[in-house]
From TrEMBL:
Listed GO CC annotations: ATP-binding cassette (ABC) transporter complex
Ranges for domain ABC transmembrane type-1: 299-488
Entry membrane topology: Multi-pass membrane protein
Record's protein name: Glutamine abc superfamily atp binding cassette transporter, membrane protein
Organism of this sequence: Lactobacillus equicursoris DSM 19284 = JCM 14600 = CIP 110162
Signal sequence extent: 1-19
Superkingdom of origin organism: Bacteria
Transmembrane segments: 294-322, 353-377, 466-487
GO biological process: amino acid transport
PROSITE patterns (alphabetical): ABC_TM1
Keywords: Amino-acid transport, Cell membrane, Membrane, Signal, Transmembrane, Transmembrane helix, Transport
Family as reported in the entry's similarity comment: Belongs to the binding-protein-dependent transport system permease family. HisMQ subfamily.
Amino acid sequence: MKKLIKIFTIIFLFLMGLAASPLTSSAEAASKKVAAGTVMKKIKNSGKIVVGMSADYPPMEFTKNVNGKNKFVGVDVELAKQIAKDLGVKLEIKNMDFDSLLVALETGKIDVIISGMTPTSERKKSIDFSKIYYAEKSDYFVINKTNKAKYTSTSSFKGKTVGAQTGSLQYTSLKKSASKANIKVKGLAKISNLLMALKSGKVDAVLLGELNAKTYKTNDSSLSLVKSSLSQAQMGNAVGVAKGQSDLVSAINKTINKCQKQDLFNKKYIPAAAKAMKSASSKKSNSMIKYSSYFATGLGYTMIITICSITIGLILGVIFALMRLSNNPILHAIAVVYIEFLRGTPQMVQVMFVYFGVGMLIKNMPALAAGIIAIGLNSGAYVAEDIRSGINSVDPGQTEAARSLGLSKAKTYRYVVFPQALKNIWPALGNEFITLTKDSSLVSVIGVGELMYETGLVQTATYRGVMPLFITMCIYFVVTFILTRLLNYFEKKMNLTSARS
């Protein structure tokens, strides 16, 4: 019991120290750090503007397959291009979940947000906004066409479950009106997932903005619309900018004024987006074979993440297993804190912390590197426990015999203990490797183009939710099946070697 209390005390002190560390305080002061009007200077010096968006919101922003390559298209993309052109820089788009955009802006991962974002009073506390560039009149409930007679008005959804994209104005509207309207709210990060939930009966309707809702209805004959009467001021969409960047806001407003004066949104941007969506949703264009390059790209990144993370996990696992077995109380305490903390916190949170938190101290950290580091660190904690259990499973007499023959402690571990421990823990290590391969999908939340990320792009581009998931599931199965066969092969080789000796 005393040992357990000591361990929890160490972990508590570690967390308290982390909370008071410069890393955490820098996270809280992220907006203050970019409040000196430096973003415009950064854009000019780098020669590019990094725009964050959630490309699952047609016709504002979505993806299209052009000659086997992914292309971002839509109203917001055209506006982003015009802003970059007027600033005389190149455009770089970072695609991520909508509810990750604000923290990405505050931590400097992106320069601006152009993603159909409404400048609510809550958001204005964290970031600044340009003027409204496009305003929608109302929201609509998207329903299955078979329920058209059942749902005719907002009151029809009493006691029903309505979905909305987390972080969106529609989600906020639902949450505020849920108790009064007697509506159950279901929030998901991707609209494509919401529509799959609708078609599978998990939700009764999905609340979307007018343009977005009408777009999905036009491109999917199985859907129908019901106009929403939930009270919510429709302020429209604006460009999000970090606090204090008045020069950048002014430049963006000039571009918006020019676009509005020439009526580019209604005359050019929206019609072009509608044309792109029509061609993308046609049976000829949305064949899964045409999107094979997406899956291939995603698989490539998945394997890179898996191999690199396994390497990091093995190295850290050995180090921290030996530290935890050490008689040195400091090394032992460090290993305990590392292992218990990483095993006791969600891996997705760790991925986001490394990218957004640690990434503020290490400027320009690529999302891929952050994902590999986070997954590798997490894997190291589990591998450390596997190795520790393997070492403990070796008969102490083996160590005593080796030492009595004159082997040093290091050579005893290397030639006697580790080979036997590896044989004992091989199945557990194999399970960890397979699990890590599947866990690589978590890095999609920070915009890494692995398999699940690319699957989301295919879903958005083709308006098909289930088939891309089925293909991805099959790819994961093939990869893990091959990995399992390889692990079993080496396990048999070790058993044969052991039997001969």
